[in-house]
Design a protein that fits this description.
With about 190 residues, the chain is mainly α. The chain folds into two domains: about 60 residues, no CATH class; about 120 residues, no CATH class. A two-stranded antiparallel sheet has the order 1-2. Strand 1 and strand 2 form a beta hairpin. The protein binds zinc ion. The site of zinc ion (ZN) has 7 residues, from loops. Zinc ion binds next to loops.
Length: about 190
Amino acid sequence: MKKPKSVLGEADQIRLATDLIKLDARLQVLESETTLSRERLLKLYKEIKGKSPPKGMLPFSTDWFMTWQPNIHSSLFMNIYQNLIKTTEIEEIEAIIHAYRLYLEQINSLKMPEVLSITRAWRLVKFFDAGMLTTTGCKQCHGHFVVHSYELVDNYVCGLCHMPSRAGKTRREEELRTEHEHHAPVI
Ligand SMILES: [Zn+2]
């Protein structure tokens, strides 16, 4: 796996890996964002979590981000992230961590389930970097939502303004929608 050039010293690498592990990042994220060896990362992971990291491949498809509930969560995260990138000088991975913590705060304050994992959030940013995904404005609430770059349309209506009739709405999602209407745009 290609290692990024990093100006971070070893202590900072360990701090970065620790932050990511505490947020439940998958091993692949740690390997791609730090220069620490796989062995050291495994050891660090076990020290912090008291168990080995889960095995298995990372999700590689953009489709998950387009489904109804994940799209709302992904859009919320991406708005926070893009705002951070615009207003601060921090590195991408630091912005991902910071934005993810802010996302968790918002979700917890609304008593919503955490739909977006840090690994998915990281993947989402990579899809944006690759130009596969982008955000577009909802013509009704003017919030910004994640869409496929090739699916950009002029009259986009978001999943909160246009709830699917059988979305299996939970009370919490209903609350989010209400919140959205009263303080638009939440996202
Ligand atoms: Zn909308």
